[in-house]
Design goal:
It is a single chain. The protein has 113 residues and is α+β, with helices and mostly antiparallel strands. The chain is 40% helix and 11% strand. The protein contains 4 helices and 4 strands; from the N terminus they run E-E-H-H-E-H-E-H. A two-stranded antiparallel ribbon has the order 1-2. A two-stranded antiparallel sheet has the order 3-4. The two termini are 32 Å apart.
Length: 113
């Protein structure tokens, strides 16, 4: 197994390369506490019905990233950030495999913005 050097967190603590610093854990917990739940963000029964219908279409069967996996999740190409018009615009939807395509690749892309 390859060894990774320790890193310096922006608060100044030296931690293992793969670990989160306590300040990072606190910031994430605070952000999660303030974030509305999925239902309040629009992912309700109407969303589940519409996204299931979207994935049932033959052209949306496979992941849009080209990995060849079956799509099981509808992703917004442009993050809607609460904009209901963008949220419901089907031209902004794409089929993705929830893991790893949506769970890791897409999230990394959004966090860079």
């Amino acid at each position: 197994m390859a060894w990774k050097p320790r890193r310096v967190c922006r608060c100044g603590n030296i931690i293992a390369a793969t670990d989160l610093c306590e300040c990072q854990i606190r910031r994430k917990a605070e952000a999660d506490r303030l974030r509305p739940n999925a239902n309040d963000r629009g992912y309700d029964s109407k969303w589940r019905r519409e996204s299931t219908a979207f994935l049932a279409q033959p052209e949306n069967r496979f992941c849009a990233c080209g990995c060849g996996r079956l799509a099981d999740c509808v992703d917004h190409k442009i993050p809607h950030r609460g904009d209901k018009k963008l949220f419901w615009s089907r031209s902004n939807w794409q089929p993705l495999a929830s893991s790893p395509c949506h769970a890791s690749r897409k999230q990394r892309m959004e966090h860079r913005q």
